[in-house]
Amino acid sequence: MGQIKQIIWDWNGTLLDDVEMCVHVMNDLLSTYNLPAINSEKYKQIFDFPVKDYYLKLGFDFTLHPFEKVGHEFMDNYFKELINCSLHKDVLSSLSYFKKMGINQMVLSAMEHESLENSLTKKGIRDFFTRVQGIDNHLAAGKIELAAELLNSTNCNASETLIIGDTLHDLEIAEAIGSACILVSNGHFSKERLLKKYNLVFDSIEEIVNYLQAIVNKY
Fold first, then answer.
1. Is it the case that residue 86 has pLDDT exceeding 80?
2. Is the pLDDT of residue 1 over 80?
């Protein structure tokens, strides 16, 4: 922890508790296209990056219905429901703790950049972050390149950076830029799925804070 000078947070699923809403919105879309509905357990087993692969697992046929079409239909309804989503219960206290510790905090998200900025502001936590980086479209692509750009924009190097996310894609991003990573299992991937690939997985952000505090106290 003494070496960590900045944290790059994922947004959806990590800070924002939007899994149930994603399942609800997707089931409405699946119904429109006469495809089988899913539950939260199934969702956490098949959701993936690139998001296009996830849609294929759901049964969408892009020769009949292009990904860009169904993807935008999902996002249109997602943003209509976003107001009903809350932060995970331990987010505010955890962000406040890291701020008090003097750790620089940023957000990297697969959400379109302007929408991300608006979402963070409306949820009341934008001021915790020195930089926020979303993507330039609504189809959730390109986070690895943006992570490298985000890192290069700071005075910290990769060894001083911790990525906190909820998917194996967040782990891939950390590995790509050479930073540390901690995963939380109350987001878009199941704990079982995360643990198959990585062992630093916690049930909540509060547990992550406790883990990092224990390291500080040890030394």
1. yes
2. no
